[in-house]
Amino acid sequence: MTSTINQSVSTGKGGRPTPHVRVAIIGTGFSGLGVAIRLLQNKVKDFVLLERAGEVGGTWRDNTYPGCACDVASVLYSYSFAQKSDWNSTYGTRQELFDYLKDVADRHGVRPYVKFDHEVLAAKWDENLRRWHIRTSQGDYTAQVLVAGSGYLSDPVIPDVPGIEDFQGKIMHSSQWDHSYELDGRNVAVIGTGASAIQFVPAIQPKVGHLDLYQRSAPWVGPKPDKQIKGVHGWALKRVPGYRAFRRGWNKNGREILAFLFKRPPLAEKTIQGMAQRHLAKSVPDAELRAKLTPDFAVACKRLLFSNKWYPAIQQDNVEIIGGEITKVTQNGIVGSDGRERAVDAIILGTGFLATKRPIAEKLSGRGGVKLADAWEAGGMKAYRGTTVAGFPNLFLMLGPNTTLGHSSQTVMIEAQIAYVVDAVKTLAKRGLSSVEVGADAQEAYNKEIESLLDGSVWDAKTCTSWYTDSTGRNPSIWPANTRKFTRGTKKFDLDAYQVATLAGAETHADVKA
Question: Which UniProt keywords apply (predicted)?
Answer without folding.
Answer: Monooxygenase, Oxidoreductase
